[in-house]
């Protein structure tokens, strides 16, 4: 019996361990923290080492290693196996090998992944029972364990961390939404980050499709030698395969949907809807079902999410804007009078791109590790310590007609566990403020 080492016992690590066990491997699972499910996992035959990675694990022979995508390759325990030229996969690769009844439409990119994947899933699922997995929240291995009885279409959101650990994974339809600087605290270089995204199509063939965003110069530069059909997409040009005019979005001569049916704001969201619709169409979804979803879809939580209007001041939660490129997209949805709440963990990326929205931002209130890095970006700026401090300043400053926008341009990890919790806390602040105003 061959042995596999799984590094990282988060949800995906546990799922991949169970899938490997089911398929005849002896599984060794290790985590630097306590594994709460240890006794349950050991009772089914998985060997568990928690509270650190013992050196004795380096002495065993493994068929391959599965690493949690969030653990950098430079971490000493992982780097030891890199130096040994061991095969190191992520759970996506393992699920792909065993879930032979899944057909994939895969989405990666710097921004827009979750919106495209969610829209795509809604369209696929409207046509027939479908699944959604990956970076959006559910490990693919969980689905591979549960759904074994029939064929399923899967909308799959992939981070570059997940793509670094594939070998044979092949989606039928895929796209890279866009490319902008991100994750420079994890990757060796910006070029390495961009190149990792392009792995999404490396195993495709002439039966498959890749949607290439020709508006993005980085995508055009790095998306080369594509082995499948290429569908060029643009919001600006009409000499491409996937395009729009003033009224409709088109794939070649096929009218995908009516632009005025879109509820989600921003030009970039129109692009997200076009990509999702084209992918769904290529996966066999009817135009009727695509258009029904377009009419109903109100957006993704934490992505320019409308929260409330209080005293004629609108509040929006864009906590998912964890980099400058995403923050630009969020700010582009508004014309003026934005009180911007931003800041968070320092990922060592430039905020200079935000300067173009100085006329949109009435006041920038920045918080967290990067609070002082916005002083040279916006004409009117103040630094505070926490998001709570920023919110309290914002409601004091806000006048009727203003917009209070949480759009951090940074990840959350300096003060919050993740961007979802940051967004939930912001929404809670808004609801508490509304209740207080109603009492007055």
Q: What structural class do helix, strand and pairing data support?
A: alpha/beta
Report strand order across the widest sheet: 7-8-6-9-10-11
Record field, number of beta strands: 20
Report, as a whole number of angstroms, the end-to-end distance: 70 Å
Assign an overall shape. globular
- The number of helical elements comes to 14
- What Rg is obtained from the alpha carbons, in whole angstroms? 23 Å
Q: How much helix is in the residues?
A: 25-40%
On the 0-100 scale, what is the average pLDDT? 94
What are the low-pLDDT stretches, counting only 5+ consecutive residues below 50? none
Strand percentage: 15-25%
- Major sheet details: 6 strands, parallel
Outline the secondary-structure elements.
Layout: E1 3-7, H1 11-22, E2 26-30, H2 38-43, E3 47-49, E4 64-67, H3 76-83, E5 88-89, H4 91-98, E6 102-108, H5 113-127, E7 131-134, H6 140-146, E8 152-157, H7 160-163, E9 173-176, H8 190-197, E10 209-213, H9 217-222, E11 229-233, E12 242-244, E13 248-251, E14 254-258, H10 267-282, H11 287-296, E15 305-310, E16 313-317, H12 324-331, E17 338-342, E18 361-366, E19 381-383, H13 387-397, E20 403-406, H14 419-439
Parallel strand pairs: 1-2, 1-4, 2-3, 4-5, 6-8, 6-9, 7-8, 9-10, 10-11, 16-20, 17-18, 17-20, 18-19
Antiparallel strand pairs: 12-13, 13-14, 15-16
